[in-house]
Design goal:
By secondary structure, the protein is α/β, with parallel strands linked by helices. The chain folds into 2 domains: 174 residues, P-loop containing nucleotide triphosphate hydrolases (Rossmann fold), CATH 3.40.50; 178 residues, Up-down Bundle (Glutathione S-transferase Yfyf (Class Pi), Chain A, domain 2), CATH 1.20.1050. 43% of the residues lie in helices and 22% in strands. It contains 11 helices and 15 strands. The strands form 3 sheets. It has a 6-stranded antiparallel sheet with strand order 2-1-4-5-6-7, covered by helices on one side. Strand 10 and strand 11 form a beta hairpin. The longest helix is centred in the middle third of the chain and has 40 residues. The model has no long low-confidence stretch (mean pLDDT 90).
Length: 361
């Protein structure tokens, strides 16, 4: 997939921009806070129907304005448009035809973004790590989104029953639990297969960047590993009633990160943590590329070189400048890093300068 032209109106701090893009490498240079990340976020929005950094659509509208609009023109004559007025619902269109359900769009334009906030995958809770798995799987298996929606709806309805003062209807409770178990088992199998296939790719990339000085592992944990999920959910219904919510299910799954056999959160330095999440995201890219033979994902690299030593930067530069990757979007405050990438690559490129929300070549 190639994004040929990007139009932005009133998105975050960008008043207006019309960008003709390189089919290979696009570099955005500027100081912190000037709007570089907002350009990448606009590209992300056109793939996922939402901002990567703010789940509230009205808050991406530029201050003092009444609407925002994004339009991306891709190869194969594909045009995607997103727009929203304050106080109204957003509109998302493919070739001028509005989607009935936004889930129909997910996966059409596969994309992987590497950003400073990715360290939350290590430092934060299990929700971030589950979301990591779900975002990738949803891009190649659209039915996965529907399973997630059905599971979450049953989970919410069961939690309502658990919170009520009177004893819940056992038959109704059982129906919600059966729905959770059926959808949860399928979600578990998808996540399990994904992690098993991702792990060796991820380990290879990490070892390449670290020059084989360190070893890392991924370990997927789930209540489904304790036996049939329906039995696991029903086994502790009394405890669930006591706390007022569901203690067991795939909404409690986690992905454990380890360095040298120990938890990454406890053992990793800043540079090792950053190497870990970069390797994880580049492995996702490779996974999506092989899963979807029809198109190569877009790769967004937002300020990825901070806190990395020169050797790791050099290895990452070699990776992303290779022919394995398609169209790339890179932001940085340091022109030296970008010059290294461009020097290592024989591909076409464009450099954009960003200052106070304005973008120019």
């Amino acid at each position: 997939m190639i994004l040929e032209k990007l139009s932005i109106i009133n998105y975050k701090n960008i008043a207006e921009a019309e960008l003709e893009l390189s089919p290979k490498i696009n570099c955005f240079i500027g100081q912190n806070g000037v709007g570089k990340t907002n350009v990448l976020d606009a590209i992300y929005y056109l793939s996922f129907c939402r901002s990567a950094n703010n789940p509230i659509d009205s808050q991406v509208i530029r201050h003092g304005e009444e609407f925002f609009m994004l339009e991306g023109r891709y190869d194969d004559n594909l045009t995607v448009t997103a727009a929203m007025k304050r106080g109204q619902k957003k509109h998302f269109k493919r070739d001028k035809k509005e989607y009935k359900r936004l889930s129909e769009h997910i996966g059409l334009i596969p994309l992987v973004v590497v950003a400073p906030s990715d360290t939350l995958l290590i430092e934060g809770g299990s929700e971030e790590r589950r979301r990591l798995m779900d975002i990738v799987i949803a891009q190649y298996d659209r039915s996965y989104i529907e399973s997630m929606n059905r599971y979450n709806k049953a989970l919410q309805q069961r939690n309502v029953l658990l919170k009520q003062e009177e004893e819940p209807d056992a038959e109704v409770m059982g129906l919600f639990e059966e729905q959770m178990a059926m959808e949860g088992e399928r979600i578990y199998q998808c996540r399990k297969a994904f992690v098993e296939e991702l792990t060796p790719i991820f380990q290879h990339i990490y070892e390449t960047v670290s020059e084989h000085r360190e070893q890392v592992t991924l370990n997927y944990t789930s209540h489904c590993q304790r036996g049939p999920l329906l039995e696991v959910i029903q086994r502790d219904r009394f405890k669930d009633r006591a706390v007022g919510y569901s203690l067991h299910g795939i909404h409690r799954d986690d992905l454990e990160f380890c360095l040298g056999g120990h938890p990454m959160k406890r053992e990793g330095s800043q540079g090792q943590n950053k190497t870990f999440v970069i390797a994880l995201k580049l492995a996702q890219f490779d996974f999506l590329k092989r899963t979807n033979s029809k198109t190569t994902p877009l790769l967004l690299l937002d300020d990825i070189f901070d806190k990395l030593d020169a050797q790791r930067v050099e290895q990452i530069v070699r990776l992303v400048a290779s022919d394995e990757f398609g169209q790339i979007f890179i932001t940085d405050t340091n022109r030296d890093h970008l010059d290294q990438i461009l020097k290592a690559s024989s591909h076409d490129y464009k450099i954009f300068h960003v200052e106070k929300g304005e973008i120019y070549v």
